[in-house]
Model the fold of this input.
Amino acid sequence: MTHRVTQPNVLYKRSALQHAILSAVLIGGSSMLLGFSTTSAANESIANIERYEASTFMALEPQTLYDILENTPGANSLLSKMNSTSNNRGFGSSGDQILINSKRMSGKENSLEKELNSIQAKDVEYIELIRGTRSDLDVQSNGLVINVVLKQDIDSSILWTLGTVKTANIKAHTTGSLTYSASKGNLKYRIGLNHAVNPAEISSQEQFTSPADVDTQTNVRLRENIYKESQLSAKLEYVYSDKTAMQLTAIYEKINVDALTANNSEFLTSDTLQSKELEYDWGRDKWEVSGDITHDYNDAHQLKLLFISNQADSDDKIWHRVSQDGAVFKPNYQLPRIYTSKENVLRTNWRFKLNKSHTFDSGFEVAINQLDENLQFIRQAGSAYHSTELNDIKETRYEGFSNYNFAISPTLNLQSSLIYERSTIDVATDLSVTANTLQHVNSDTSRTFNYLKPRLNLRYDLNDIYQVRFNYQRTVSQLDLKDFVPWFDSYESRLEEANPDLKPEVRDEFSVAFEKQWQSTEGSFIVTPYYHKISDLINEVLLAKRSGDGNIDSATEYGVEFDTYFGLEAFGLNNTLVSANYTWRDSEVIHPFTAEKAPIERVSKNAWQVKLNQNEILPGLSMSLTLEDKSRYTFYYYDYQGNVDTKITANAFIDYQISQHLKLRFKGDNLLNDRYTVNKARHTGLFTQSQYLRQEQRANERAPRFSLTLTGQF
Done:
């Protein structure tokens, strides 16, 4: 009798294993033979999911979904990390760990933060906190995922903001937004207009000291920067039937950046003065259309299609002027740059629910990105020099993927995936230089990269309090198309060379997370040791003339991450939420200049953040305070090596709920001036082969910025 019961289970497990192997091998077009379900497997654990009804937060009278998440236990760490993937090309299998109706955002220019601030709190049905993996989510995760479920029917309403922002000696600027949301039958739509201004004043004092410990030069810099963004957006969601739904988002935005950097230098040995000005005028027009279509063929099969199409037209101008000993400023050089970037992405996948324990998700993605640039350098002082560099860069990337989720039991879940990525980058450059004579050079290169990216995640719930998660995955960085064109270093006042042979960085990442939940205080503590084996590390290396981004064959990084959040009810402090994280890390690489073992440059050994949210300090009054810091890190360049020492940064806001539909927020950023110090030991040439020239120390700070915003709805 026992044999009869267990034998079908053995055969069933073998069949599941065969499907898993088939899923890992058949990718791209063949993987479309597999499908997937719309619901999570019945075997999946409910112990790893916390659900918060919207009524839980309504006592705090939130205006937006962002307001709700700020008071959701565990959400603060995700809010600080969101939009981390917005610069990636294509979609990929990872993404922001905050989902809306189990879906990722299909667009990029409309950032997740803007989306959360555009959704009214009263339209939220409930919020799920999901620890570890689950088969019905749009992204893969090793930690916490937040899934926000919205109401199907919403009332017509308007959400608006009106505010002002001010920093240092820059005049105050007005900000505001207006969002109209409504639904009619199976159609939901939203139209929004937003105007944001981000002023910044950055100052620095720099001192040069000779090898004889004599001060030789001082530099005082002041940069005033004004970033303005105006955006018009529209979103449409339509449920065609019980099986088919779609959403479409369209955005148009204009961005302008006006900045002026003044640098006053005093040469102490010659008792002379020199003043320099860098004036920036940058503008960008961008549009984007994105969306997704979901079709449930039946209870076991679901087809999904996501797409993005966008284009940005940018016009940058830099003017450099010089004044000697208080004389009139004279033009030194111009640096005009005009470029257009385009992205078109199509991703399709088919999820197949074999049974209550086994789910397969397979498909492919095509992403085409282009960058066309016209970069000029025009010398206006001294001998004539005019260079024009035309760059035409195109990347075509294909990705086939197959994911498998096995809900072994209500407390044990296995998720695996295999991704094949192939990308081709074509770079065509036309360079002409006019000095005493005209020189003209053409180059045309094409490179193709192929990568297999496996992933394995195992989640085990020991009980309702303890959970263990093991994760292995191979990640491949995406090269920024701008890495293949020269870039302007404002501190050195020169164009830095690009590296045409730059390759993506590959990491084999291992981690084990241990989590304990405190149910009495709705708290959690997570400790995650990790180890990364790195190939083709992107790092500063020697290039043809000086140095720049290049690859080092191998490196390692390892460390421990601590993440926690908890309430303070035990101390009599109700409505208080503390969120904190700390990371200790170390690394090892063969230094590309000294050939000795050294840590990876620009990686801090220690980093931490603490956030305190306190509601109902007085009726209608709440506040939030965030503190963070990281330890000193080292860096190097062709003719210098140095380190950066940062200080604690602080941001805070105070909210006052005037009425149910009206809130006033006073916010302060950079409250401790975001201070950091850069130390450089400069040499006369390559620092490993030339004489020590001087010590340079630059103390930087950013002026506090304050804003006052009134938010309302009707």
In short: The helical segments are 2-25, 55-58, 65-70, 75-81, 112-118. The first strand starts at residue 49 and ends at 53. Residues 604-698+705-714 form one domain.
